[in-house]
Amino acid sequence: MSRRTDRLFRITDEIERLDEEIRLTAEELAMLRHIDDDARRDAAVGGPLERDDARITSGDVARFEKTLADLEAKRARLDAKRRTLLERLD
Question: Residue 65 and residue 69: Cα distance in Å, rounded?
Fold first, then answer.
């Protein structure tokens, strides 16, 4: 096999790995959003401990949103590389 073909296979494998990581991160983010929603509601009627919990869960949501965006951007870059390699193979 040529070096381009080997590289194409490695990129495709990495995209598949990223797809799974994106799926898992998105599922965890959905769960965190649900927890954050509950924590915000508790904070609205509760005391300082509930507000601290809400602040923490809000930070978790923001962190996972950034992680998901980074993973999706990395996948998009790899997909562009894969398309370029495929064009060169033709």
Answer: 6
pTM equals 0.89
Q: How does pLDDT run across 21-31, given as a tens digit for each residue?
A: 999 999 999 99
Is-contact 54 42, C-beta < 8 A? Answer: yes
The CATH code of the domain that includes 37 is: 1.10.287
Distances (CA, A) of 35 to 44, 48, 60, 63, 66: 14, 17, 10, 14, 18
Q: pLDDT value at position 89?
A: 83
Q: DSSP secondary-structure letter at 46?
A: S
Number of structural domains, the chain? 1
CA distance 77 to 81: 6
Greatest distance between any 2 Cα atoms in the chain: 65
Mean pLDDT for the stretch of residues 37-59? 95
